Amino acid sequence: MAGQTDPHISLFSPEEVEFMGEDELVEIVPNMNMEPLNFIAGDFGRFVPQIPTQVPLWLAVALKRRGKCTFRPPQWLSVDNLTQILEAEREPQSKFQPLPFSYVEIARLLFDHARDDIPDMYMVRSLVEDIRDVRLHKLENNLGSFQGTSAVKMDNVSAMEVNLVRPFARRALEAFYKHDKPEADTADRDTRSSRQPREANNEPRRPLRQR
Amino acid sequence: MKSRTLKLREAHKVGGSAAAFCSILWDHKAEHFVTSSSSDLSIFVHDGLSPSSSPPTILRHHQDGVTALALSHDSSFLASGSIDHCVKLYKFPSGEFQTNITRFTLPIRVLAFNGSGSLLAAAGDDEGIKLINTIDGSIVRVLKGHKGPVTGLDFNPNGELLASLDSNGTVLCWELQSGILSHTLKGVAPDTGFSTSVVNILRWSPDGRILAVPGLRNDVVMYDRFTGEKLFALRGDHLEPICYITWAPNGKYIATSGLDKQVLLWDLDKKQDIDRQKFEERICCMAWKPNSNALSVIDVRGKYGIWESLVPSSMVAPTVGIPDILPKRRNEILTFDEEMEEELSASLNDDSDDRESHQPSRKRIRRNTVIDDDVVPDEEFYDEGTSYRKKSYKEKHGVRSGLPRSIAGSTKYKMQKPFQPGATPAEQGKKTFLCYNMLGCITTIEHEGNYRIETDFHDTGRGPRVSSMIDIYGFTMASINESGCIFANPSKGEKNMSVLMYRPFRSWASNSEWTMRFEGEEVKVVANGSGWVAAITSLNLLHIFSEGGLQKHIISLDGPVVTATGCKDQLAVVTHVSDCLPSNEQVMEFRVLNICNMTQQLNGRVALTPGSRLTWIGFSDEGSFSTYDSEGVLRVFTSQYGGSWIPVFSATKEKKQKENYWVVGLNTTSLYCIACKHPEVFPQVTPKPILTILNFSLPLASSDLGAASLENEFILTQLRLYETQRRVDDMALAEMDTIALENEAFDMEVSQDKCILRLISSCCNSKSFVRAGELMRLLSLEKSMRAAITLVTKLKLPFLAEKFCSILEEKLLEEANVATTNQLHNPSREAVKSKVQNFPAPIQSHTEEIPKASSAPKPSAATLVRKAKVSGLNLGKEQIKRDETDDVKKGEVKKLNSIKNPMNSVNNEDTGLRKEANQEDARRSSNPFLKSTV
């Protein structure tokens, strides 16, 4: 990937992105009785056998490792839904399909830890991998279509994907900006002023993270 | 006679020029027919309607040629015997392999099912005929007596006799009950030697009175069932010995095939042949199509064909006049039609599951009534069947209980069958729940003739780990709690009695499992609790055992059991009171017993939605008895109104119409259930079902208030409060510590008040002021009453605030009254007390006093007392209440404030009095007057 040319510029390592993705809520079915857990992020539980409850992914993984719960695979992680998404992603000129912001991380952790809880695990896994590949390819194509603009808008790009292209996109935009400057025929003062809008234009991508 | 040629189609390849014994069979509905050949490993199941177009289902389980086939009466099972010494059982028509039901040391030659399909007779080159119980594969009996390979077997239609024929030509007739030989006919049939392609065969007539055996003179000889004497012989155009015989379904015709390669059709009444068909090869097996005038044949080269309309249309069709009442032969599939099958399953179920007997046909009802009355019917069909059937009936009555059958059958709707709460119905080849509750579950699955029982606790950390168990009994009922699980199976005939088995999870001694056998009765429902196990049987007996297996009590219940459940010391039993009403309403009653104290805690009728059935009973987490019916209504039994059912949940009120709820448990506010997608009523075992929590929602009328959820909450909290207070009282009576419960009750009061306040607000919004006033009276805490006044004041409803103030005042008075009467012993109050005691009377007279009081501000005795009392009561609370009351700036509320204040003037006191007067007049017009006085 383009961003890998200079890995030091990349903001987060994949592990770090995964760490952040672990805050996503997943549904588990506990098989033990436990009082609610009170965390900074909120209270989770109480845990009653066979009654599903929502917990952060990291807690779910920790419980699963101890054999205290089973996962309920999220709705989107089904063969039907993923097949649909994959088909839609493969359509030429299509937009990115809505998937959880950290779908790669969630899927990865579930595949690692909750193998027995996902029906058609191998099918699901290969579908997720296909979707990821298709989306990365699309992302690269989109980067190729950069014009001399100061902002690029892409909806539904996931955490891992954004993380991959962020350094490249930033530098590319910087480069565009630099090359545009003589044509724009403006002073340094304007450069600074146009820098600000560009930073501001980065903002709209933020809300994605709240997905 | 016309000579038609029949085209044969190849089903099985027979190599070389050798002749192979091939078999052909129809199922009872003529939907499929089965062929096999002794030179082919496969069994073909052909589609009976279009055998040529659709390819046959091929069953390849044998290692050598298949020599014998048999279908059970209802065509649900297919048995095959082979040269490889095995007898295999398949499901039919799917052809799914079930089990290797038995093995011989030499090839099998013949198989036969008895009428009910419970017995399979198998015989061959081995010595002895094996009678195999098809349910568990056990060998019931081995009949020895033949000196050569047995090639022919046939059960008498009523199932009492088995006729067998060996290759030497000897016919033996066995009485199955005793295993005694009733008749021996030596050398009556041709000696076929050791040829495997020719077998001697014999057949009972469909009415069971005649046994047809190939004779020595190329004829068919008929023998009498009772005497064993030769009745007559059919002799005709057969040039060589007869090798196969088959009766038409109605017994009026018989088809025979001879070694001379021809098939003859005989008319029994005229005792002469009516048609014949020549074939290229010898026909070794024939079968009448059960519902039409057609005969299917198969020759020794494995080619089959169907001889259509063989009985001339001028004669009675072979399907007309099938003996209707007698139990039918079951191994001869040709003799069935559906009507008979129904009749059979009904009358011959002494060893089959008696579930069938709950749906008797109309015919049966009539007949049963006859039998119950012990009237010997004079219909000719009964002359030999009755004795047997009466006997079997008596046996059945020994095992089964219930109301007299004639009554049970007299209405259209049936009494509900017994069931185990938390069980799902058995399904072939699938795991089913024997028991599922909040604690854990017991599942069973059939596996190669045995059952495998697994016990799991939902809380895997805390519950004991229980190893899975191979179940040889075939348990269908189970119950589980913390200390152990109890299993039981229904009885399957005399050989397999109903067994009760208990497995404790932890015990200080090894080998503490125990089993009990029930002779002549059948366990219908089981339950267990702390230290006891209960089993309710078909004789309406409630057996109570200790955990160690000691038989502690035996109680006769007053009706057939529906279901039962246990929780700690409590056992709840539901029984039928009477037969189902013509309006399809079940009539049941319940009783809750305390096993430890040997007391009956509750009893009463079970409330059900009309037309529904009970589907679940259980105890809530707090121990209240609850039921769930098939219409989706959950009811909890409360002591309100002297013990009544409250419908706390109704599935129809729930928004998701597409789901059925399978109840597992409940607590005071919600229901634990498994949601099943609509057509499904029962959950699947895998994937492991998860519980859904549904809040109670009473089936309330849709009120004009538009606050349905609040009204729902209000009634529920009221109910809970009532129950808690009752428990507090109970515990106080038992001199136990009630502080925890009282705190709980207080919390409930608070939440109830919150709910009422919200209701008041919505009442005010919809201008239902009278309702608001009623709600105000229901508030239990003074603080919330003040909040209500504040609320209506803020909503700018001064007259309502006025009304509320008077209510509060009244309430405070009452409280004070109660408090003072309760404190009779308090000496400091002595002075006040004497006057307070006759306080209610002065209140009545206040109306007259008011004008006096207002005109002359001289406190009367009554008002003084009131003032002192009210103020005395409120003095302590005064400080706290100040904050609240400060908010209340309106004039009307101030007045109330002044009442509490001991320093207030008599004038204010009088306004208070006046207010009371107004209240009694229930006039709002008093408002301006009040304002003017302030």
UniProtKB/TrEMBL annotation, chain A:
Main subcellular location: nucleus
InterPro entries reported in the protein's UniProt record: GINS_A, GINS_bundle-like_dom_sf, GINS_Psf2, PSF2_N
Pfam families listed in its UniProt record: PSF2_N (PF25005), Sld5 (PF05916)
Single biological process term from Gene Ontology: DNA replication
GO cellular component: nuclear chromosome
Region annotation (Disordered) ranges: 179-211
Tree of life domain: Eukaryota
Keywords in alphabetical order: DNA replication, Nucleus
Domain DNA replication complex GINS protein PSF2 N-terminal: 13-70
Domain GINS subunit, first and last residues per copy: 76-174
Secretion signal, residue range per the UniProt entry: none
Binding partners and assembly: Component of the GINS complex.
The protein's name in its UniProt record: DNA replication complex GINS protein PSF2
Species of provenance: Eruca vesicaria subsp. sativa (Garden rocket)
UniProtKB/TrEMBL annotation, chain B:
Compositional bias of kind Basic and acidic residues: 882-895, 911-924
Residues covered by the WDHD1/CFT4 second beta-propeller domain: 417-700
Annotated Gene Ontology cellular component terms: nucleus
Disordered, as annotated region: 344-369, 882-934
Keywords: Nucleus, Repeat, WD repeat
Start and stop residues of the WD repeats: 59-100, 143-184, 235-276
InterPro entries (alphabetical): WD40/YVTN_repeat-like_dom_sf (IPR015943), WD40_repeat_CS (IPR019775), WD40_repeat_dom_sf (IPR036322), WD40_rpt (IPR001680), WD40_WDHD1_1st (IPR057646), WDHD1/CFT4_beta-prop_2nd (IPR022100), WDHD1/CFT4_hel (IPR048591)
Span of domain WDHD1/CFT4 helical bundle: 737-812
Compositionally biased tracts (Polar residues): 898-910, 925-934
Compartments reported by the entry: Nucleus
Domain WDHD1 first WD40: 24-306
Compositionally biased spans, kind Acidic residues: 344-354
PANTHER family membership: WD REPEAT AND HMG-BOX DNA BINDING PROTEIN, WD REPEAT AND HMG-BOX DNA-BINDING PROTEIN 1
Protein name per Swiss-Prot or TrEMBL: Minichromosome loss protein Mcl1 middle region domain-containing protein
